[in-house]
Design goal:
single chain, about 180 residues, mainly beta, two-stranded antiparallel ribbon, about 0% helix, disordered N terminus
Amino acid sequence: MAAESASAILRNQAIEVDLLDFVDWSGVECLNQSSGNSLFNALKQGYREDDGLILESDADEQLLIYIPFTQVVKLHSIAVKGPEEEGPKTVKLFSNKEHMGFSNVNDFPPSDTISLSPDKLQGKPIALKYVKFQNVRSLTVFIEDNQSGSEVTKVQKIALYGTTVETTDMKGLKKIEEH
């Protein structure tokens, strides 16, 4: 596909887009992030394209990221970019699991686990187990370790690709009066 854009991928007649516009920014959280190098550096448009801006772990190599969406989405792939040494290695994804912490993250089976080799840290989309991500209201991303086993994990970019799910806007419904 010569005309394929970087932010839209055509699959099975549905156009998959960067789901950034559907992130509920008021609910986004990241546990164990360095105060100077926060999640927004890796997630927000414009910031994540700048390799000088990174998300960096603080106390150890693990990061726990919670991303709620403003509407239900189907998640198809994730793109992760990071440095060869400190970039993420094992990434566990949990669909619709709220209020997870480091103390209970291993109590739940992940919807998918991605093992990133240094060549997969270039920011190219990696296909997920699509059947596990059909009605996603939120995504929890657990970065368990990094490439070198060092105390600090660095992420330059996280991008989520998929489609929105057509749903009924319950607020827009009006009660029908009986006559």
